[in-house]
Amino acid sequence: MTHHQVASTQAGTAEKILTGDRPTGQLHLGHFVGSLQQRVQLQHRYEQTILVADLQGLTDNGHRPNKVAENILNVVADYLAVGIDPLKTRICLQSAIPALAELAMYYANLVTVARLQRNPTVKNEIAGKGFGASIPAGFLTYPISQAADITAFKATLVPVGDDQLPMLEQTNEIVRKLNQIAGQEILVECKPLLSNMPRLPAPDGKQKMSKSMGNCIYLDSDDRAIARAVKSMYTDPNHLRVDDPGCVAGNVVFTYLDAFHPDPGYVAELKQQYEAGGLADGTTKQILTDCLQTLIAPIRAQRAVYMADKAQLVAILKQGSEQAQEEADAVLTQIKRAFGLKLF
Predict the structure, then answer these.
(1) Are residues 40 and 105 in the same domain?
(2) What is the DSSP string of 268-309?
(3) Does residue 31 share a domain with residue 180?
(4) Does one domain contain both 62 and 191?
């Protein structure tokens, strides 16, 4: 791939997709199964923009910006390594598109603080991060920034988990208010594209895989790290002997086999055998270890190639961002006109 190949707009696709990630760490298997695989498929059917959301990464990392800055190219390398193609998907950097921050500023005047505090997604994340009364203003206004991202590209489909639905609801409220002010339909409402993949638990079975909790299997994890993570996985605590009947529900090894093993029929047989008794946890863990090592090896190799040529990653990001800025600027002009502020 040359430095100058860019995502082309695919003709004949009415739906436009916007998705993205905060670059606060490398991407992991939870991302792979929850969103990355889906994006690889969607890029062949829709016009897709992926935003590396560095500004949103700063909303709870403003005091340690390096955590965000150092991971921007990591995330781009992850995208390319799993098969996201910059010829089909536009990959861009949030902070390189000033129109997004400006749009958020206009939208902020249409949303009350009380409404932001009522947003269930924001509420849960504030509780989870233990901010108390010290909520960074940027974090509280996160839904406004997200609305700017979605509307700047007139995205009609946004892939999300059901925990993010309140964010899209808030975006659509802003869209309706703006269109009312303008007296015409400038912005379009978006619909969720819900993932049918349940959230991947961490190996210990207690919570989701999370960069901040350090309980991840990354897309460049080596064979030893994968084996170690699988070995630590939570199984059925009552399955003490091989011959004991085991329980599949809540058994993380089987959750991962369901998510990653290429042969569902084989996994169904394993489950039957495990529930009847006669299948050791060590055996199922070895099957999963082999499966994950086979999956990650080519991604890890590709990723290393991309990380060895950071200039290429920057070029892809720069070109995607320039193209995105053009599109976002056109929307910003319409918004300024709606507010009566476009004098020249």
Answers:
(1) yes
(2) HHHHHHHHHS---HHHHHHHHHHHHHHHHHHHHHHHHHHHT-
(3) yes
(4) yes
